[in-house]
Amino acid sequence: MNAKQGQRLGIILVLAGFAVGIPGFWLLIARDHFEATARIVVRIPSETNLSSSIIAYDPNLIKSEFEIIQSKIVLGKVVERLHLDADWGNKYAEGRKLDLNEALDLLKQALHLRPLRNTMLIDISVISEDAAESAKIANAIVEIYRDFQAQHDPKLCVVMIVDLARPDTVPIAPNRTLAKAFIGVGVLLLGYGFVTFVRNWRRPNETAA
Length: 209
Known about the structure:
By secondary structure, this protein is of the alpha+beta class. It has 2 domains: 3-29 and 175-201; 34-163, Alpha-Beta Plaits (2-Layer Sandwich). It has helices spanning 3-29, 59-69, 72-82, 84-92, 100-110, 131-152, 176-201, and strands at 34-45, 53-54, 111-115, 121-128, 158-163. Strands 1, 2, 3, 4 and 5 form a 5-stranded antiparallel beta sheet that branches. Strand 3 (111-115) and strand 4 (121-128) form a beta hairpin. Helix 3 crosses helix 6 (131-152). The longest helix has 27 residues, at 3-29. The protein starts with a helix and ends in an 8-residue tail after the last helix. 24% of the residues are buried.
């Protein structure tokens, strides 16, 4: 490898160090995010006895219930009950109260729905920088969704809350161990790249045997 190739290699290593280290730095200083999860079960009342329920897995029903949970009818009431338009306006919009659509967009970004495989159990999770807020929102969603279905058509679908969400004490993100690893690798690449460049820069006309 001649001197010019060594210089190019050094520059590439330095750039690679920045490419790895900078994301690691931002990951390290990022705010904690917490996830709270409430669990519900969707039951289909039998035709002969409304006190009993059929809990057979129905993917079509799960899909339709996901659409209802994420609908404006349900989430709009969550925004209204918890005053998320005002709270998030103070947090994200310099005190300006968000309109409903803006608040709904933020809520949908924070909301994650997960069915438990081959069951009618659904986990409703909310991610927030505030652990208490994530649990409060998740619980409001399941309660409002349950009440909506009870009023809408209880003979078609019955929603029961299995577990309410609780504030988590351990953040799910950022992964600070991964961030430190990125920074460590980035520093190594920067150091090795800088040394490689300087060594080859001092002997520009030297070539390898």
